[in-house]
Every structure is written in structure tokens, then in C-alpha cells.
Write a structure and sequence with these properties.
This protein has about 280 residues and is an all-alpha fold. It contains 11 helices and 2 strands.
Amino acid sequence: MSRNLFPYYEQNKQRNGHRALQMAAAHWKNRLLQLYTGTSADATYFRFGLVVFDLATLLFFVVSSLFDPNIYIYAIDYLIALVLACDFFARLSIADNSKFFWRKLETWLDVTVILSLLASMVTDNLSFLRIIRTLRLLRSHCVLRDLSERYPWFRRQQEILGSVLNLVVFIFFISSCVYVVEKGVNDKINNYMDALYFTVTTLTTTGFGDITMTDTVGRGLAIVIMIIGVGLFLRLVQTIFHPPKVRFPCPDCGLINHDQDAVHCKHCGRVLNIPSDGY
């Protein structure tokens, strides 16, 4: 009798084990969903932490370029890759549509950055990886957009925060290009900080002249920075200190963003009385 019941007990034990695993997986998925999309204090701090982590990783990439590659830098690279991989798979697990998830630009930016970190010990040339890792900051746009949809302060400051983030990404991206092109060619650009210094002095049209491009490719890059980069830089700075849109809710349709000199609402035509400094 006991022999006949033994398979039943084993099957029941396996079903209970599978059920427990499913419940635990559902619990963690629900917890991750709350952290990434919820409005609780824990969710707010968590998403703040994502932005701070992005900035910290960028700072590490800059500082690490000042030193020769060593085991400690490799260890931090792998630690950052582990954190990014956990974040990546967490977002994949809570995605409503996995196919749409894989079609998003931010997904492939994360994959590229993680692979570049894992490849740091395999390849001797780390310079070209800097330009890829700078793009990690672009994912902060998604975090800021998500926060602005749920919290009034982020909604009010969304344009300014987005402009600041665009400016930071732009400066560090150009600096990465300078670093990749000139390291080993220009004896005055030996690390990322030298490239960042050259980029900032060029974009601000300061031009101290202590660092100059001496090769044909470098001079071509400098021409592109001066012609295109300076204009984009000034535009980004303008959007921070003098945004093109003002926030003024239309009494009729509720449209919030309007041109600075708007007299009528573009959506419903209502006459607006937007406070202005007169310039």
C-alpha cells in the first residue's frame, strides 16, 4: 500500500515545489514592477538611484582613463557590468511585450555598454570603448521621463533636466571622440581629462591654445566641433537658461506648454494671458 502511495507523494511534492517557485517569482516580479513603475517613496528613491548610478559610472570612466589598466579597474568594470546586467534583466522580466522591449534603442545601448565592460580585459585598446559607454547616460532620459509622469516636481522641471542631461551627454560624447582620435597621436592628449578640457575650451570658444590638434584627422574633428558643435552647445545652454516653451495651463483645453510669445492657445484658440518679462 505504501509503495503505491509513494509516487503520489513524490508528484505532490514536486507540484508543491513548482507552486512555491511560481509564487516566489510572481512576488519578485511584482516587487520589481513597483520599483520601476510605482509611485511609492521606495520607488522614487530607487529611480533616483538609477540616475545617480549612471552619473557615477560616467565619472568612473573619466577617472579610470587617468590610470593605466590594472586589476582594480577591471574589477570595477565587471562590478558595473553586473549591476547593469541585473537592471537589464529586471526590466526585461517586467516588460509587457518582450518583442517591443528588444526593439527599443535603450535596450541595445545597455547591451552594448555591458559587452564593452566585459571586453575590457580581453582587448588592449580601451579607448574606443569610452565613446560607447558615454551613451549609457541616454538611458537616464527614460528614467526622467518616467519620473515626470508621476511626480509634479519632475514634471515642472522636465525640460530643464532634459536639457542639462542632453548637454552633459553632448560634451562627454564629443570628448570621447577627441580622446579616441587623439590618444597616442597627440602628445598633449594623454587621458580623458585632456580631451574634456580641449572640448570645453573649444565649445565655449575660449581657445587657450595650450592643446591643439597637430594631425589631419584631429584638425578635421576640430573643424567639425567648431562649426557644428559650438552651435549645438549654445543651443543646449539656451534651452537651460531660456527655455523655448513656458508652462501655462490653458483654462479651456488644459494644454500646458506654449511659446513664450503666445497670445492664443495652439490647441483650442483660447486667448492666453501668459506672464512675461517683455523680451
